[in-house]
User: Which sequence fits this backbone?
């Protein structure tokens, strides 16, 4: 804890100077981060790799989910298969510190079958094949109860369903996960050092080959899932004071989408990203040249004059002008007389007098 505190103070002072943020907030976040990393390392060092629910009861192997897919495991004896008591773990802490729950999606690493074993003679030209990464959906985490190890916290077996990348892509450009047909399961065993074929589509791998937990969401846009309630917003795997609408999943519940944009364990997600579409370079160049040629032809047609107007202008220019004769000295140049208007037609008519004519009487 002291190391985490001093490291947090050092980094907090540097970030506060760069970001101009109160150092108390930065110190709190950094100390909590290093404190959580210290707890994870202590859990791994002490062997506390899984946790159990207090209400969980013991069960026989025949009552577990693993027995329905793998009836017999080589890590358990015949007596343990028949009378052994098993506990179902609530969560499992992976080697990188991720907390894997009993419904989490993880990335598993399967050694290549072409890789040489420890007892085989290794030739200088032997091809070293990279391991195969698969997406898996954890179904069950089991531990057998042993009388000589009452406080043991290690998981004995993890059952997971192997998923494959589907042909469809979500609207966010992320791959969809679908199940194999028939379904393919793996059992992660910490004590087996090599790959064993149990039966068709059933494999047994090391628990250390479960690399990390990934973020897988339901494709709500394609299934048109409605909102029903509110829930707490989680950021960087921590609860915040923010709340958002809770979505009620409808349609196909197994229509999963892998979030390839997550920051945690991004190096393992690179091979699952949807590759960018490739285009034909020659076709692109030909289409570009064609569009440019059509644009130039259009500009030339706009600048050129109208051929009908040009023909009329040229014909009028070639027509001879009429000759103008000089007037003789004795002749009077008659100017055009403007047309006289008929003013009589517009003359106002005399109005009838409204006065009474008075005739004077003769004098007597």
Assistant:
């Amino acid at each position: 804890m002291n190391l985490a505190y001093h490291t947090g103070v050092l980094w907090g002072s540097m970030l506060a100077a760069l970001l101009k943020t109160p150092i108390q907030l930065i110190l709190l976040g950094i100390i909590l981060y290093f404190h959580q990393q210290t707890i994870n390392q202590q859990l791994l060092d002490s062997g506390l790799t899984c946790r159990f629910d207090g209400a969980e009861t013991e069960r026989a192997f025949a009552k577990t989910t693993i027995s329905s897919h793998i009836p017999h495991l080589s890590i358990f004896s015949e007596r343990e298969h028949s009378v052994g008591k098993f506990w179902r773990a609530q969560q499992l802490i992976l080697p990188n510190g991720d907390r894997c729950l009993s419904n989490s999606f993880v990335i598993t690493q399967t050694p290549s079958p072409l890789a040489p074993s420890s007892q085989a003679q290794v030739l200088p030209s032997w091809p070293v094949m990279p391991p195969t990464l698969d997406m898996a959906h954890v179904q069950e985490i089991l531990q057998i109860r042993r009388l000589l190890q009452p406080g043991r916290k290690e998981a004995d077996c993890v059952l997971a369903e192997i998923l494959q990348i589907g042909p469809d892509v979500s609207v966010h450009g992320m791959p969809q996960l679908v199940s194999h047909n028939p379904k393919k399961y793996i059992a992660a065993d910490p004590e087996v050092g090599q790959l064993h074929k149990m039966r068709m589509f059933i494999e047994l791998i090391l628990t250390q080959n479960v690399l990390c937990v990934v973020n897988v969401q339901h494709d709500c846009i394609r299934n048109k899932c409605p909102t029903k309630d509110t829930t707490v917003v989680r950021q960087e795997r921590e609860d915040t004071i923010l709340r958002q609408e809770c979505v009620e999943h409808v349609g196909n519940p197994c229509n999963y989408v892998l979030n390839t944009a997550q920051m945690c364990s991004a190096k393992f997600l690179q091979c699952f990203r949807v590759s960018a579409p490739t285009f034909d370079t020659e076709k692109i160049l030909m289409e570009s040249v064609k569009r440019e040629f059509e644009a130039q032809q259009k500009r030339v047609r706009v600048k050129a004059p109208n051929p009908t107007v040009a023909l009329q202008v040229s014909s009028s220019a070639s027509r001879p002008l009429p000759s103008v004769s000089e007037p003789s000295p004795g002749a009077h140049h008659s100017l055009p007389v403007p047309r006289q208007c008929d003013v009589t037609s517009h003359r106002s008519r005399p109005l009838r007098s409204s006065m009474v004519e008075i005739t004077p009487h003769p004098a007597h």
Observations:
- The radius of gyration is 47 Å.
- Residues 42-48, 114-124, 191-202 have pLDDT under 50 and may be disordered.
- The longest strand covers residues 175-188.
- Residues 260 and 273 are 6 Å apart (CA to CA).
